[in-house]
Amino acid sequence: MSAEGMRPDALHEDALSAYLDGELDATARAEVEARLAESAEWRAILDELRETRGALRALPPVEASPAFWHRMLGDETVVDLAAARRAKHRRAPWKLAVAGAAAAVVIVVGVAAIPQRDKVKPAVASFTDAHATRSSLNEDVVSNLASVGIPGFGR
Amino acid sequence: MADGIPTWEEVARDHGRFLYTVAYRLAGNEQDAQDLVQEALIRVRKGLERYEPGSLEGWLARIVTNVFLDEMRRRKRRPTSALPEDPDWVVPPAPAADEASRELPVDLQAALAGLPEEFRVPVVLCDVADQSYEQIAASLGIPVGTVRSRIHRGRRLLRGMLMEGAA
Q1: Is B91:A63 a contact under the CB 8 Å cutoff?
Q2: Bigger pLDDT: A128 vs B2
Q3: With contact defined as beta carbons under 8 Å apart, do B139 and B65 qualify?
Q4: Apex CA A54: angle with CA A42 and CA B151, to 5°?
Q5: Complex ipTM
Q6: Rg of chain B in Å (alpha carbons)
Q7: B148–A57: do the CB atoms touch at under 8 Å?
Q8: Cα–Cα distance, A25 to A126 (Å, whole number)
Q9: Is A47 within 8 Å of chain B by CB?
Q10: Which letter does DSSP use for residue B5 in this model?
Q11: Beta-carbon neighbour count of residue A106 at 10 Å?
Q12: Which DSSP category does A5 fall into?
């Protein structure tokens, strides 16, 4: 019976998984490769196994919810872990320099955009000058100050 | 880490995701995975002093597997039903998955959960936890030949389930 037509009894089919997993010694590996060279059935099985194994190994890691880790480890440890993760992703020095320069530009632009004292409306400086002028004329500080701010008061 | 023995925080920080992933692939749902990790972390904490520097993930995989098998035995004595899965915390398949995985139906996790436990455990330890046959044999207390046979049969069964589901 040719290798093509017989079930691989002496060399069991599970050697194919071990072959993919690198679990065979050199002798067994050579035996499997010889069988693969002559058996289309084994080659087909190997292809299927490789596909299934590849899919399993490509499964992504699974994340537990943050609430779970808080429950397990306590807030303090979770905060420590978060800090450790941040440290791992700390910015490179040149990125910090760029961020610093950008912050400086924002501050300069922001200061320039702040209304200047003499542009404030109403003009607070002239308002207080009016009070000072009135109070210096008759020395009745309170009534003269108030009459500017509250119409009708002190009449 | 002193003398190669990690601290509790190091285990949690560096291997928490690994532990949870193995637990999830074994259990098949979020609630059971959380229970497994909780119990496994308790055992890790108790056993850290006795940990012998080596493959930490191998040690963690062994612990979470033992917790899983203990739980399975307990449920067989007192059957309970698992809570429904919350898909929100399952990261979707990576877009960069290799060519082989793209040819298979996406519901691989569901098929894995449907695999009989005697095959699922060695398959998960091999293909998710990346353990050698020898490590798996030591974890499960069975011969290496049995591990090899179960991994192979498990993958073949999984393939059959996926193809059946796709038909």
Answers
A1: yes
A2: B2
A3: yes
A4: 65
A5: 0.80
A6: 16
A7: no
A8: 97
A9: no
A10: B
A11: 10
A12: T
